[in-house]
Amino acid sequence: MTASSISSQDVRDVLAPFGALQAQPEAAWQGDRPLHPSLARFYEEVGPYGKDRPRGPEGIEIPTLGNPFWLPPLSGLWAFQEGYRWQGRDGEPVAGWNQAWLVVGDQGGDPFILDEESGHILHDHHGRGSWAPVHLCDDIFALGFVLGTIGVLHEEAGDDLYDEDFEIRPEWSGELRARLGHRFEAAEADAIAARLEW
Fold first, then answer.
1. Closest of 68, 61, 87, 73 to residue 29, by C-alpha
2. Tens digit of pLDDT for each residue in 30-80?
3. Percent of the chain having pLDDT more than 90?
4. Which distant-in-sequence residues (6+ apart) come within 8 Å of 106 by Cβ?
């Protein structure tokens, strides 16, 4: 199997423990351009929604090492571009930000980026002074599956996840690669796990 065989139900199964999932129609999108087709399908079929708050849904948090992963609801996706695409203070564009990039999630400010030209998901670390994202996986469904699988494994492992130096035990790193290996080629599963510090 490959990442292209990841179904909406596969993604829902691994994300469901971390918050409400519900269909979010394309009309919830508040961006200044059409919603990318892969995102329209992802939010309609998977729909990371989370709890309702006074300003709307909060999206879902997925536990992992350090800061959790976060996937925003569709209604908050455009506002989430602040600090990446434009400055929060004055709304001016951020220098060096590719206009084909749309941040679709993060981990403590480290963005998961949809490249709207290829449909691929890129990943970068913030705070380095410039953006140079690298390929993480082929599409938003693959990203959802990866993040959810990590979250499920993190919860299963509990305190046993870490050794006395607060490093991930090799058996859990290996287990993540094995689970991802059911959907990705072995080298890709290893690269994804390593990039996300597992």
1. 73
2. 999 999 999 999 999 999 999 998 888 999 999 999 999 999 999 999 999
3. 85
4. 69, 70, 112
Q: β-strand 56-57 against 52-53: which pairing, if any?
A: antiparallel
What is the distance between the alpha carbons of residues 183 and 1, in angstroms, rounded to a whole number? 5
Query: With a threshold of 0.85, does the pTM exceed it?
Result: yes
Q: Distance between terminal CA atoms of the chain?
A: 22
Cα–Cα distance for residue pair 81/79, rounded to 1 Å: 5
Q: Comparing C-alpha atoms, which of 16, 9, 5 is closest to residue 151?
A: 16
Distance CA 180, CA 174 (A): 10
Residues 168, 161 contacting (CB under 8 angstroms): yes
Which residues, at least 6 apart from 142, have a Cβ–Cβ distance to it below 8 Å? 3, 6, 121, 183, 184
3-class SS letters over 143-177: HHHHHHHHHHHHHHHHHHHECCCCCECHHHHHHHH
Instruction: Say whether pLDDT at 108 is over 50.
Output: yes
